Amino acid sequence: MAATRNSILDDPFYQPADEFFPANNKIGLTFDDITLATLYSEILPRDTQLDTQLAENLRLHIPVISSDMDTVTESRMAIAMALNGGLGLIHYNMPERQQLSEVSRVKNHVHGLIQEPIQVSPEQFIADVLAIIEEKKFGFSTFPVVDAKGKLVGLLSGHVVKPRYAGKKVSEALTPRAQVHTITKKELGRDPIARADKFFTEHIGIHKLLVVDDDDHLHGLITMSDVERITQERKAQFKPARDERHHLICGAAVSATRNAFGELDRERILNHVSALVERGVDVVAVSTAHGHSKGVGDTVSVLRDAFPKLPIIAGNVTSAAGVEYLADCGANAIKVGQGPGSICTTRIVAGVGIPQMTALYVTSRAAAKKKVAILADGGITKSGDIVKALTLSQAVICGGIFAGCNEAPGDIVEISGKLYKEYRGMGSLAAMKAGSAARYGHEKNPAQKVAPEGVEALKEACGSVDRVLAQLIGGIQSGMGYLGAANLGQLYTKARYIRVSPAGQREAAPHDVVELKTGN
Ligand code: XMP
What we know:
By secondary structure, the protein is of the alpha/beta class. The chain is 33% helix and 18% strand. The protein contains 19 helices and 22 strands. Strands 5-6-13-14-15-16-17-18 form an eight-stranded parallel beta barrel, surrounded by seven helices. Helix 7 crosses helix 8. The mean pLDDT is 93. Xanthosine-5'-monophosphate binds next to strand 18.
């Protein structure tokens, strides 16, 4: 006889979501108000899978997204998130042109084959090349040289792209075609990375391999550092999140921009998103504090009509009606959270918002009906919160957890011997003045009278995103192991909840000890 795995004696205490939340429908519950009950398990934490699908063509390998905030996500953060299998949403508190180049930086970060390498012509001067590097903020200085017909003429090595040679022509400084290492597309075969890896091993000191066709037209560039990184990645449990062309995935936030007459500026929104799509953006997020509103719904509809296949995130909402509305407008994933964020004051200022676990339950039921994803946005301070959030959502969005990382925008400041980074709400006065006012329904240049819905704060500097994510992922996998969940789908269906008393909350944290080291 098989050993007993479940007992009906547990059932009155540890309830599944559809019993637990309706039974507690008179009170808003958040992460620390509940705890998850363990279940019989044959699953080791390290074997759990964290893949999550947010839209037909948007899949992450870990269910973690960095928030579209100006002290959290620009290209460095988005690159780090995607390399770890997650996603970064580049904020929109910057000129549109700058946001486009932030997206380009992510999309161009690591390539197996750079299909459209930046090229220079033999007629240009080294000064022109230096100017392009400066303007586009390229992190490299070696370029293939091609003639007007696209034929390879040589390679301009980084060693000669120096101000001292500014007055020389590229044709005088290049390494000539005969000395440049090339390979044809055909020779690359089905596994270009393995082929290129072999080439670099066989050709000591060569770091760039150009791809040409039979007529010597340039078709791409492979670099040794990219090949090494990708070869490493293939061994990692959580692979980088990449598009089908092997570029890192990247998201960008857009706002429901209005014109001078207060009407939705459809043309500007469309032009902005078209340009983002041209740069290869994988998902746009229509980010506002109140997503269940005409402006946000109309923006999503306009984008859905213009870009039928583009994954769209929209929010924020906390009601089933809000999810249904945005799903009907064409959103694929809905941000849930009003006021849970560590820098948010919406609940204090506006008296509005719902504690996050209740909001996630209510919205998740509408999302399941509409076949859209839920993103739990805000209020997450530890990996246990993520495990709880993932029992009702497909991914989490975090701001504060990443704001102290090296990859977040901004400088480290030292105060009384401790290191910090600035972290501010997008509804704080400073952030609204920098451009995010529309997100909170205010004029672009808010005067004194607007009520900020966020604070300006500091986060302790906490090292690299890799390190922070390793801790979070370890915690998520551990939680899944306790629930016998091999993947996020099983976590979603298996979770059972119980409320926690204030004494239970105290019991949950280290107590009655003198702590020498924190958990991480
Ligand atoms: P955490 O808790 O991760 O929250 O720091 C990040 C999320 O908070 C939201 N956000 C705000 N909410 N006022 C608000 O009420 C603000 O100024 C503000 N700024 C950001 C946003 O959803 C973010 O992802």
